[in-house]
Design brief:
Layout lengths: L2 H15 L14 H5 L3 H15 L14 H11 L3
Helix pairs in contact: 1-3
Length: 82
């Protein structure tokens, strides 16, 4: 999956949890949870939606690596099943 497709999938999953999010305004280098104001439950729902869409398991130990949109996309790109 190329990066633009992956980014689109991530943003669609995010909008499913937080429909008020404007993808064009998101910066890839800023803390994602703060930028879109996701609480803990919304964050878990978002990660669950990514798992369903992309088939990627995200262990709780890796949550700290997923701070920005860019970091999340890089993480997912490495783990998407072939």
């Amino acid at each position: 999956m190329d990066e633009s497709t992956l980014r689109r999938q991530v943003l669609e999953a995010l909008q499913g949890i937080a429909p008020e999010v404007e993808p064009a305004t998101l910066r890839g280098d800023r803390p994602l949870r703060d930028e879109v104001d996701l609480d803990s439950m919304d964050w878990l729902r978002f990660l669950g939606a990514l798992h369903q869409r992309l088939g990627v398991d995200i262990p709780e130990a890796d949550y700290q690596k997923l701070t920005t949109l860019d970091a999340l996309i890089a993480y997912l790109r490495q783990r998407i099943p072939a």
